[in-house]
Structure formats: C-alpha cells, structure tokens
Amino acid sequence: MYVWFTLVAGLAVVALSLLRTRFPYFSEESAYILRSLGFGARLVKYKKVRPFYSIVDRFLDAARTHPAKVFVHFEGRDYSYGEVDQRSNKVARALQAEARLQEGDTVALFLANEPSFIWIWLGLAKLGCPAALLNFNIRSRSLLHCFSCCGAKVIIVSPELQDAVEEVLPSLRQQGISVYLLSDNCGIQGVNGLSDKISQASDQPLSRDLRANVHIRSTALYIYTSGTTGLPKAAVITHEKVWAASFIQGACGVTAKDILYINLPLYHSAGFLIGMTGAIERGITIILKRKFSASQFWEDCRKHNVTVMQYIGETMRYLCNTPKKDGEKNHNVRVAIGNGVRTDVWTEFLNRFGDIKIRELYASTEGNIGFINYTSKIGAVGRVNFVHKFFFPYALIKFDIEKEEPVRNSEGLCIPAAQGETGLLVGRITHRTPFIGYAGNKLQTEKKRLRDVLKKGDLYFNTGDLLRLDHENFVYFQDRVGDTFRWKGENVATSEVADILTMAHCILEANVYGVKVEGHEGRIGMAAITLKEGAEFDCADTYKQVVNYLPAYARPRFIRLQPSLEMTGTFKMKKVKLVEEGFNPAHITDPLYFLLTEKKTYVPLTVEIYKAIASGEIKL
C-alpha cells in the first residue's frame, strides 16, 4: 500500500510539474475562468429576476447586513453603510419635494470627489433617475454641451464649482434648467441651495415602487468620453454595464475583507464603476481622496490598511518618481487595478514597492470588449482564453495608418491581423455584447459601428485602438488611432482643441495631435497651425483662448507654424508625419512655440527649453 501511495504521489508531482512547464498560467487561468463563470451566471440571473435587482439593491442588502461597517472614509471621517443609506434617503426625498423628480428624469452631477457624490447618486438611483457625471474640469461651451446632450433638467453643483456654473447660468435659465448648489442658501438668482433641504428631509426608506420600471437595459448613467472626435460625448451606461463593471474587482481576486483606495475622479468609469460600484458589489470599505497625491499615497495606504489600489499609468510613474525612502515595501497593498502603465514603470514599481499583483485592464467606457491581465505578465493588458472569446467575440484586423481605415480584400471584407501583428481591435455587436452609443449623437454612434468585417452583414464596434496578440495569447496595447490622444489620464479630442485654437484672431487653421515625450505616459498636445493673411502669431491671445476654454490636460503645449496644412485625398488633415517629427527644434525648420505656464504665454521653443523638457527640469 505504501509503495502504491508513493508511486501515485510521485506521478502526481511529475504531472503537476509537467503541467506547470507546458501551461505556466494554468492555475491563474483556471481561477479567473471559474470566477468569471460565476459572475456570468449572476448576470444571467439578474436579467431574469423580477423585480429587477440593481446595484442599488446590492447596496441596500449590504446596509441591512452590516450597517455599522465603514463604507467610505474621507478626510478623517467614517461613513458607515447604514449612514450612507440614510443620507441617500434624505437626498431622494429632498429632490422629490424640490425638483419634483420622477422615475426616468436625468440629473447632472457637477461634483468634486467627496462622499456626497456617492449618496446623491444613490438617492437618485433609488428614485429610478439616471445620473450624468460631468467632468469637473470642463467649462463654458463644453460644460453646456455635456449638460444638454444628456437631456437633464436638473444640475447639482459643488460650492467650489459655483463660478463655472455662473458662466453658463444665462443659457441654463433660458433652457429652464433647475440649478441646485450643495449649500444651505445661495444669493444668486436662479441657483437654489439644497443642503438645508436635505438635512431637513426624512431618512426613512423609500418604496421600491419608485423605480418599478427600471430594468437591466435601462439607462443608469451617462459618462462622458472624448471618443474619436468632437466635443465630449455622453456614453450611455445601462444597468447591465454597471453590473459587468462592478464584477471586475471580484474577477481580480478582491474579497469582502479588502479595503480599496480611490483617488481617481468619480466622474470617470474607472473611479465610479470599477472602483465605487465594485466596492458595493464586494461590500467593502473605500478610502476616498479628493485627488491623487504621490507624496501622501503610501502614508495613506499604511494608515488605513489599504489592500487594493486603483491606478492609471501616470499614477505609477508619479509614485516611481518620488524620492526613495526606507521601508517602501512596508504596506499591505496586494492588488492594483488599472490601465496605461508602461513596461519600464511597471517593473520599477514592483522592484520598489513589492510583490503587488498588477491587474492591468483594457476597456473603454462605451465599448463592448475588454481584457484583464489576470497573470503577472509585465506589459500585457490582458490574456485571451476560450471562455473570454466565447462571451466577448472580437477581431484584430489589418489597419492602414496613413488612410486611417481598415484594410479590405477584393470582397470588401476586413483582413484579420496575423498573430504577433498589430491590428485594429473591433468587438462584435450582439445581444449579449451590445454597443448602445452616445446620447443625442447618432452621427458619432454610427461612426463607431463597422460593417462587413469578417462576413457580409456582420456588425462590430470600432475601438479605435491598435493591439497585438502574441503566441501565448497575451494582448498588448500598441497605440490609439484617429483624432484622440490621451494625456494625464484623460482623452483629448483633437477637433475640440482645434476649434478653440481657431478662436484666436491670428489663427486660420489648426491640426491638433499628440506627441510622445520621453519619460511620460500617453501623448501631450501639439498643434500645427496656419495664420490668417498678414497676421503674426499672437502668443498672448492664443494662450488666453486655450486657458479660458480648455482644461489643463487638453491645452496644446507645443505650436508649430506652417505655411499650409497637408491634406489627404479626402481632405482630412495628415497627422502621421507630424506626430513622428515631434517638437525637436534641432530637426524642424518651422517656427515652434511652447506654452510656458510660469509666464502665462507661448514662447519660442529653443534648444535650451527642449533640453530642459527632456531632462525633466521643466515639468509637463
């Protein structure tokens, strides 16, 4: 018997060793697939159950199960699940009384990162009201556009954002929009104080009948994305998509015992969906910050026993750029969830701060396809397996960068990219993987649909991103195509920036694009411009326009004066060559200018300034 036991044990060890050698990611893949199947089964259940069980119902269950558990910690104050539940009840009742809200009414939230953001959204959700999450960096024309395209008749504003709303108040009044400020009172005509109404309202639970008609395909949110062109677009987020995004934490191995650190903006899908609603789905505690601080990050993690962090590529780089200290691995962070980290930064981050499981994602707010790197493979944004491919059908197709369009064969069909070859990622649009599109923007919605991809009559979502699949089925992000680039974790729409530039009295045309800067994530804004006849480049006026109308991340830091702008045969501005040439004055004969923040103007870009940027002496 002993001999047989020894023999079986030996064979098991050999088999396991062979399995690990031939399939090095078997255990991680198996665990991920099992978790994913579990979440998939839950989503199917939620589609069928009546009445519909939403993420708000999940929150209410958590508030009943552990009312005293801390849900949000913010600036020294704890807010339990029970307290947040009561506060959201008060919000809902106050808005019922003051704004006469009913199920289906959209409300725009123009709020900073603070706990009130969460309970105001919960209050609206309890009434069955979709929320439009406005980027608190936008101003003027962009703010009006974002507000109007979601069809909201009510906007709720943080006191620190009052000035931005005052700028557009005449237009809001003209449209009959109700404006509520989170203060007890307000002396501005047309702006109503809301905080006192909330404090006086009842905190008793609300009837589920108030959201009786909400179902899994109902609109839950509008989250804004620059997409590929134009002003920001309101991506329609259904309750199904909220659930799917909330499962990402669980798919990455987060449990109910974890503590999550959120320093990303709640108006973004990362902070709101993956972070906040993911925390509700797991029933965990959030440490919420107004904004990211590299100097406070690890101190906060140690102080609050943080075990899960969120990041964007810039976050990692900023942390790696902080001065080295003793005991940098002395923390409890075990999982980091995010996207956009460079391979070199990824490696340095692990070397400095310890064995943290980096769960790099690929996804887009409005998209129907995404990947998760559930292994520890550095540099990959995901890994493809048969379960993923079944539930999320996609293709990587050949793409002509010069023409900015897919390559098609003689039959008019797209050509699949070979393994190891960079291709355009497209996700098949099916009932299970829909593409809802953008509110009030049929044109841009249609532009994201790609027909006749692998066979006549099929329909795919065009991500606008170039990816590569290697021989081990790891997926790598290569680049973004079209008229968008990413800087400081934000999408920048080139046509919006170009529109603002041409408001300067000296500029005739502008071709905006993103250029790489050594040591930085993404691409920074640059514009090739032509001047009106007889005009000279007005540094001060151009600076005034970009600062008044664009958030800091979207302002073009480099300007290139050209006698004319190159066009394609279909009159599209050529960008590829300009992107490749960059902004080195030693190689470019055209006049170059640099937005120098300290002097509040554009200045001629000299070799000295270029070297100071390259060395990091000038911060971007």
Structural write-up:
- The chain has 620 residues and is an alpha/beta fold.
- It folds into 3 domains: 253 residues, Rossmann fold (3-Layer(aba) Sandwich), CATH 3.40.50; 99 residues, Luciferase, domain 3 (Roll); 132 residues, ANL, C-terminal domain (GMP Synthetase, Chain A, domain 3).
- 35% of the residues lie in helices and 23% in strands.
- It is built from 19 helices and 30 strands.
- The strands form 6 sheets. Strands 2-1-11-10-12-13-14-15 form an 8-stranded mixed sheet. A 7-stranded mixed sheet has the order 7-6-5-3-4-8-9, sandwiched between helices. Strands 16, 17, 20, 21, 22 and 23 form a 6-stranded antiparallel sheet that branches.
- β29 and β30 form a beta hairpin.
- The longest helix is centred in the first third of the chain and has 23 residues.
- It starts with a helix and ends in a 5-residue tail after the last helix.
- The model has no long low-confidence stretch (mean pLDDT 91).
- Belongs to the ATP-dependent AMP-binding enzyme family.
- One of its GO terms (biological process) is long-chain fatty acid import into cell.
Head-to-tail CA distance between termini:
71 Å
Helix content: 25-40%
Strand order of the largest sheet: 2-1-11-10-12-13-14-15
Multimer state: single chain
- CATH topology title of the largest domain: Rossmann fold
* Gross CATH architecture of the largest domain: 3-Layer(aba) Sandwich
List the helices and strands and how they pair.
Elements: H1 2-22, H2 26-48, H3 55-65, E1 70-74, E2 77-80, H4 81-99, E3 107-110, H5 115-126, E4 131-133, H6 140-149, E5 154-157, H7 162-174, E6 178-181, E7 191-193, H8 195-200, E8 219-225, E9 233-238, H9 239-251, E10 259-262, H10 269-282, E11 285-288, H11 294-303, E12 308-312, H12 313-320, E13 335-339, H13 343-353, E14 357-362, E15 371-372, E16 382-383, H14 386-391, E17 394-397, E18 399-400, E19 405-406, E20 423-428, H15 442-447, E21 449-451, E22 459-469, E23 474-480, E24 484-487, E25 490-493, H16 494-501, E26 507-515, E27 524-531, H17 539-549, E28 558-561, H18 576-581, E29 592-596, E30 601-604, H19 607-615
Parallel strand pairs: 1-11, 3-4, 3-5, 4-8, 5-6, 6-7, 10-11, 10-12, 12-13, 13-14, 27-28
Antiparallel strand pairs: 1-2, 8-9, 14-15, 16-23, 17-20, 18-19, 20-22, 21-22, 22-23, 24-25, 26-27, 28-29, 29-30
Helix pairs in contact: 2-9, 3-4, 4-5, 6-7, 9-10, 12-13
